[in-house]
Amino acid sequence: MSFRLTAAWIEPQLAGRLPWALVVLGLLLPLASPLRAAVVAPGVKPVLTVATYNVLYRNTNLNVLLEMVRGLDAGLVCLQETTPRIEQRLRADLATLYPHQVYQTAKGSGGFGVLSRWPLEDVRFLPAENGMRGALLARVTPAGMKVSIEFANVHLRTPQVAGLVSLPGILAGFQKAGEIQDREIRRVHAAFQGMGPRLLMGDFNSFSFGPAQAFLKAQGWTDSLASVHEKPDEMPTWRDQRASMGMGFRIDYLFHTSQFRTISSQVISKGSSDHDPVVSQLQWVEPRP
After folding, report:
1. Phi, psi at 43, each rounded to 5°
2. For residues 8 and 4, what is the distance between their CA atoms, to the nearest angstrom?
3. Which of 22, 221, 236, 276 is the most interior residue, by most CB within 10 Å?
4. How far apart are the C-alpha atoms of 203 and 226, rounded to whole Å?
5. pTM of whole model > 0.85?
6. Using one digit for the tens of pLDDT, what is the confidence trace for 100-149?
7. For the sheet containing 112-116, what is the strand order?
8. What is the DSSP letter of 147?
9. 3-class SS at 241?
10. Beta bridge pairs of residue 79
């Protein structure tokens, strides 16, 4: 028997009980099961294909990782949890496909990487501070487009609940993470240098109704996967690697501003990481007023 855990079910259960509805999900993880992703709008030629992928810093099967990245067929790829070992393999094996690569190395899971088929400009790292991870920002001008796109690669705060057994302690851990994620995303948003076309993608470590996502939506950003799928929260991007758990959730996101519309978006459910990449095909449109 499987149980599908979605925002539509969770939110009414928690209404008025906690500031952040997402905190209770830490208690319900064992009940969830992964669902298969789907692609929409086949045959529509995209202008730009972008992807975000947490590659898992403990990843030992780099051959499968390289195969996955190649298969994305994206012009721009944002990676989280890159390490010197992973960077070395990506640079050596994907130099032809992605001649423009930049990395921000950090201990453990704090690394960032960007792979691009086009030159990267104005690359800058927003350093970590006050318990918050940083972010990697840059600009790119895709072939065939006469406008530069500013983007940010993020990895938001991970809830610290390991080893906690009491309900108040676990809820407090998730609530604290949500508050930090909110500050992180506001800090990254403020670091953008213009109001032109922008992308913000990465591992949010939270669910679609979390404070970071709510902030972006309030600013007019579009959740790419959700814009073309009726039940995006039933398309997990993170899978627990313990076979006995059998669960997954959508915690990785790709947001874009109104200068784009999503033609298709999918989660590719395979690979050697505990996360699955989100890949979107975006088309340039006239900005909404």
Report:
1. 85, -10
2. 11
3. 22
4. 16
5. no
6. 999 998 878 999 999 999 999 999 999 988 777 899 999 999 987 878 99
7. 100-104, 112-116, 76-80, 48-54, 278-284, 260-267
8. S
9. coil
10. 53, 113
